[in-house]
Amino acid sequence: MLLVSALVFGLAAQQACAARAAQDRARSRVAEARGDVTALRERLRRLEARSGADDAAIGRALAAAAAPPPRVLADVVALLPGDVRLDGLSLSYGERIELDLQVVARRARDYDLFLERLTASPRFEAVLPGPERREGEVRANVRAAYSASEGEP
């Protein structure tokens, strides 16, 4: 009986050691897989960041090709009443083409007419008049977004 007990104990110890070795191998594979997942996530994050920057640059290039500055300027000038002049124009190409217009009008009603024309035009949206001085000449900044084709943002 002592011999059988020793044999059973030996087999149990051997099984316990084998199970322990299998558990250690499994833990090692899990740690390795976690490291691979972390490396892949980091690589994916870098690729997404680079892709986003590439997409933004491509978007700006396409917007500049569809609406070059001379075309935008011509569209703005076409809306100016006779007594309103464009003192400055800044363009920002991004998701949208943003304009910052500096205008001078002889009278307030001329400036108001320009704002009406700008707002009614299908090429311009999000028209936002800035601070203005209405004594004598009207000097104001106006922000707007430009659409290269009518009805398209």
Tell me what the structure shows.
It is a single chain. By secondary structure, the protein is of the alpha+beta class. It folds into 2 domains: 1-66; 67-146, Alpha-Beta Plaits (2-Layer Sandwich). Helix content is 58%, strand content 25%. It is built from 3 helices and 4 strands. The protein has a 4-stranded antiparallel beta sheet with strand order 1-2-4-3. β3 and β4 form a beta hairpin. The radius of gyration is 35 Å and the shape is rod-shaped.
Strand content: 15-25%
Figure out the total of helices.
3
Distance between the termini: 91 Å
CATH architecture of the largest domain: 2-Layer Sandwich
Cα Rg:
35 Å
Task: Spell out the helices and strands N to C.
Answer: HHEEHEE
Report the principal-axis shape: rod-shaped
Total number of beta strands = 4
Uncertain ranges:
none
What is the overall pLDDT average?
Answer: 82
**How many domain modules?**
2
What CATH calls the topology of the largest domain is Alpha-Beta Plaits
Strand order of the largest sheet: 1-2-4-3
Helix proportion range:
55-70%
| SS content category | alpha+beta
CATH class of the largest domain: Alpha Beta
